[in-house]
Amino acid sequence: MNTPLTPTPSLAPARLRTDAVRLGYAETTVIHDVSISIPDGSFTVIVGANGCGKSTLLRALARVEKPRNGAILLDGSSIATSSTKEVARTIGLLPQSSTAPEGIRVAELVARGRYAHQSMLRRWSDDDERAVTSALASAGMSELSERPLDALSGGQRQRAWIAMALAREAPILLLDEPTTYLDIAHQVSVLELIARQNRQGTTVAAVLHDLNQAARYGTHMIALKDGRVAAVGPPAEVITPSMVREVFDLETVIVPDPVAGTPMVVAVGGAEAT
């Protein structure tokens, strides 16, 4: 019988957090009264088995999902009371699946990241131009800015979407499985881009599937099991054989990553085999 893990609370300050939030669809509850924080300046990774509520929780942090109970708090106030543009100026979201008009150029896509800064009285400005140029450069997409989005490779398209999120210049960036469907080289490239943005001051929260990538790039980890927090804290403390057994039903050995020194998960076999 598995022993439930005891979450370790984070004492780091956080502009964005949840207070006993409950989320679900129809008659199904997906997230059960979860209270977490995204520490300021952190690269927070949310991990867990398929269907545990990771993406639902991330969307709620961006006010895409409405809690059934509890609250999402931004700067101490319920995010539900903030205007859409106020939230968009503070929180950038890259969802798991993104769609764009056929034939749209990369520069046009990235420029859409500035919508939160527009109004009837404020049109395109020098600040908008600077933000788009900077975002394209940060994502390594400057030379491809005039290319149609649908003419790019999967990795290039993902970088274009990230550039759009960066153009918003929001201090908090949320990413839902940003490396899905990418080969290993493009996965590393995207994660390096996100980590560089984090080192430059952006608070990042990302849903990741690969525990070894989560451990290498993350500075703070939240592990979910069946819609509840199983463990929280630095990856070096959270990633243990008991956590992986409890959350993923997998027997593992944890060894140091030979390059980064972070925890590296080596699978031994299913927990039912022991």
UniProtKB/TrEMBL annotation:
Topology in membrane: Peripheral membrane protein
CDD domains with a match to the protein in the record: ABC_Iron-Siderophores_B12_Hemin
Per the record, the coiled-coil ranges are: none
Could you name the domain of life of the organism this protein comes from?
Bacteria
**InterPro entries per the UniProt record, alphabetical:** AAA+_ATPase, ABC_transporter-like_ATP-bd, ABC_transporter-like_CS, P-loop_NTPase, Siderophore_ABC-ATPase
- Gene name linked to the record: fecE
What's a BP term from Gene Ontology annotated to this protein? iron ion transport
Q: Where in the cell is it found?
A: Cell membrane
Fetch the Pfam families from UniProt. Answer: ABC_tran
Q: What is this protein called?
A: Iron-dicitrate transporter ATP-binding subunit
Q: Name one GO cellular component term.
A: plasma membrane
PROSITE patterns annotated for this entry? Answer: ABC_TRANSPORTER_1, ABC_TRANSPORTER_2
Where does the record place the ABC transporter domain? Answer: 16-251
